[in-house]
Amino acid sequence: MARREPSLFIRLFALISLVLVFGAAVLMTAAWYSARGAADEAYDRLLLGAAYQIADAIRVQDGEPEIELPVSAFELLALSDRDRIFYRVLDPAGRTMTGYENLADPAGKAGTPEKAQVENATFDGEIVRVARVTRRFDDAQMRGDAVVIVAQTVEARRALARELTFRSFILVGVMGAIAIGGTIFALRHALAPISRLERAIRQRDPLDLTLVSVPTPRELAPFVAEINRFIERLRGRVELMQQFIADAAHQLRTPLTALEGQVDLLTNDEVTPEGRKHLDRIRARTGQLARLANQLLSHAMVAHRERAVAGAPVDLAALTRRALDEAIPDTLERDILVTLHTPPDPLIVRGDPVNLAEAIKNIVDNAVRHGAPTKITVRLSKRQALAVIEVEDDGPGIAREQWARVVQRFGAPSSEGKGSGLGLSIAAEVASAHGGALSFMEKGSFGFVVAMSLSLQKEDVV
User: Fold this and answer.
1) Which reaction(s) does the protein catalyse, per the Swiss-Prot or TrEMBL entry (predicted)?
2) Residue 116 exposed, middle or buried by CB count within 10 Å (0-12, 13-18, 19+)
């Protein structure tokens, strides 16, 4: 048993989902770094602004630097109530004018850069962001650079980074959901031709060996071409088999007819009772073999015409009369009364008259050989969109448990050697090909009905 592979839709969806998940992970990582950069940039500007305001507040009085810390500088930093602020102001001589003595100068041993700088550092056991700006004094009273160092903890900027990242996550999530929905829609639409091809093949009749003609995209064309090549090979094999059956049955008919004639001649000669008994058995078996050959030929013809002959309007009453005329010579041997009841309005079906006549003859022949002692009644009626042909005999009929088997080829041959097992199966196949079915009905202890329903021509359906 072949291992069951996952569907193409699931495989494509899984692969595309993996790509989308990977892309979302990359976007979220980029969003996190971008959010951190944006938060640092925003708070660094506040930090530098506060440092510049403090530097502008430095004054020279009698040759000594003085400072009065501006309240506005700390108000800017106080906008973030989660963080602590540290500062230190150094005069040109490197002495601390105010602030925290242990707040290190980020310039360190690298000198005293004139450009403002902001960097990460650690102060009092906490991670801080440190801004350093300088102010140059170049007059007679004081020369050199005053340094302002302002540090702030990073809780607020981290909170801002998380908020920006979360918003990006919501946006990526919404876009991801839209992408997943779009992927499902696109895959369903793209794979629709495969589903159409699958339905077209699954809904075909098992006996339909015509080529598949379903519009498909270019990628499926080789697949459809291979299916059609397989169908052509299969059709060739079936036709060869049907031709062999027809040829074999045809070739058997001539010697069997001659054999029946020879047996009939022997019956006129004087034969011992024991010989007469054996001769009757030979005659019965010869007749059975002849009927089998005829019905094999009939079956091959029905199967061929079912595919090769286009349907045409058929008057069912006239067709039934002709079929009964061909069956009546068989009934006369046993003095069976055959009656036909037809409705006043014609029953028109669309189909193959040869196959329909063959089906009716097989039903009547089955009633003659296996059922009716004295009488056969054929009724034609209309039931909604169906025309129904009922063949009723006054015999015991077929046991209910055999109904399903007798419509199969060689499903229930007669134990007495009177049947071939093909008659009713041919009728069932013809009924099915004409949109109907073969059914059975008991009528008391003696009386049995075989009913064949056929689809009426559309204009005759009321």
Assistant:
1) ATP + protein L-histidine = ADP + protein N-phospho-L-histidine
2) middle
Domain of residue 262: give its range: 213-307
Whole-structure pTM value: 0.48
Q: Which residues contact 289 (CB under 8 A, 6 or more apart)?
A: 252, 256
- What pLDDT is attached to residue 331? 46
With a cut of 50, say whether residue 417 has pLDDT above it.
Answer: no
Residue 376 lies in a domain: yes
Q: Which two tokens stand for residue 307?
A: 């595919």
Q: Which residue has the tokens 């006369």?
A: 332
For the cut 60, the answer to whether the pLDDT of residue 1 exceeds it is no
335 and 440, same domain (yes or no): yes
pLDDT (0 to 100) of residue 170? 92
pLDDT at position 301: 65
Q: With respect to residue 185, please indicate whether it lies within any of the assigned structural domains.
A: no
Average pLDDT, the chain: 81
Q: How far apart are the first and last CA of the chain?
A: 51
Residue 202 domain flag: no
Q: What percent of the chain has pLDDT over 90?
A: 9
Task: Tell me, yes or no, whether 298 and 316 share the same domain.
Answer: no
Q: Give yes or no: residues 407 and 314 share one domain.
A: yes
